[in-house]
Design a protein that fits this description.
Helices cover 60% and strands 4% of the residues. It has 315 residues and is mainly α. The chain has a domain of 197 residues: Rhopdopsin 7-helix transmembrane proteins (Up-down Bundle). The strands form two sheets. A three-stranded antiparallel sheet has the order 2-1-3, with no helix packed on it. A hairpin with a 2-residue loop joins β4 and β5.
């Protein structure tokens, strides 16, 4: 293989060998680089015990996908093509392993076997060619064979795997399931746009420069990788079924009788007079006023007795 051989795969480049022949395709790789940096930042903000080595590996691979694709759309040769596709393929294998083992609880042995099987299927799909209405791996006698769907057939196993994993996660009420399913839906759209890049090349232009749709594949896939990375933060989290949540909201909880009795105000109990307690100042004042009144009454009575004794005649 001649690594310096130029590759002409996409609408925007055409047959040009210039470094800046694909400005839109090159610039759109900023989405991958941005997502990779955000992923690393999100990881560093989490407590150490909530980080994992595979998350750092996925974040690093997202960065490499952006840098590899950028180099390919600038230099467009066999060497930079490898720098473009190798990080993508490694990401697919690593993420499938993470999804099987962490999301679905697949034992490590089975996870390894399934990942190897997926790699074989994806590699076989990437070798498929189309010619004269036929599809397959052409023999030496076949002429005019080319990549099917502009080379997008190799990504169909990844799309199928995302859909299957997402549905299984949803069935198990995994909170990450919607993220994976949304990623699959967006990935389906991006594969479609990648596939039609050459067929509608003449219809997608800007100021006379044909740009095609490959740059949208980059931007959409940056969103796909971001959603898939966020899903790793929800490993092991489950959501209550919607039907159960709805029923719980509709049923008003009954107040137990014991709570009602506890909340009712208690009746006031008569205060007990402590034995031997000293009387207060107010009580002493009231007792003093009562004694004075008795003394005054007794004095008046004595005066009346004395006056009546004087008025009696002496013998």
């Amino acid at each position: 293989m001649n690594l310096s051989e130029h590759v002409f795969l996409y609408c925007e480049r055409g047959t040009s060998t210039l470094l800046l022949a694909e400005p839109w395709n090159a610039a759109s790789n900023a989405g991958f680089i941005l997502v990779g940096l955000i992923a690393i930042d999100l990881l560093l903000r989490r407590p150490v015990e909530q980080r994992s080595a595979d998350q750092f590996l996925l974040a690093a691979l997202i960065l490499l996908i952006g840098l590899g694709s950028l180099s390919f759309h600038v230099f467009a040769n066999r060497g930079t093509e490898l720098a473009d596709v190798i990080p993508i393929n490694i990401f697919m294998l690593v993420y499938l392993g993470v999804a099987l083992n962490r999301f679905l609880g697949t034992p490590p042995g089975w996870t390894v076997l399934l990942v190897i099987g997926f790699a074989a299927i994806a590699g076989l799909a990437g070798q498929l060619k189309c010619w004269d209405g036929a599809i397959g791996i052409p023999g030496p006698e076949v002429t005019g064979a080319g990549p099917c769907l502009n080379g997008s057939v190799g990504y169909l196993p990844a799309l199928f795997a995302l859909i299957v994993v997402g549905m299984l996660m949803r069935e198990r009420d995994q909170r990450a399931a919607p993220l994976v399913l949304w990623a699959a839906a967006i990935f389906a759209v991006s594969i479609t746009l990648r596939s039609v890049d050459l067929s509608i090349c003449s219809d997608v232009a800007y100021e006379g420069h044909k740009i095609g749709t490959h740059f949208i594949w980059h931007l959409l896939n940056a969103g796909v990788l971001f959603l898939l990375f966020l899903a790793t933060f929800r490993v092991g989290e489950t959501a209550a079924p919607a039907s159960l949540t709805k029923r719980l909201e509709q049923v008003e909880p009954e107040t137990p009788a014991s709570v009602i009795l506890d909340d009712a105000p208690a009746e006031a109990e008569p205060e007990a007079v402590p034995v031997g307690e000293e009387p207060t100042q107010e009580e002493e004042d009231e007792d003093g006023e009562g004694d004075d009144e008795k003394e005054e009454e007794q004095a008046e009575k004595d005066k009346e007795d004395a006056s009546s004794a004087k008025n009696e005649p002496s013998n």
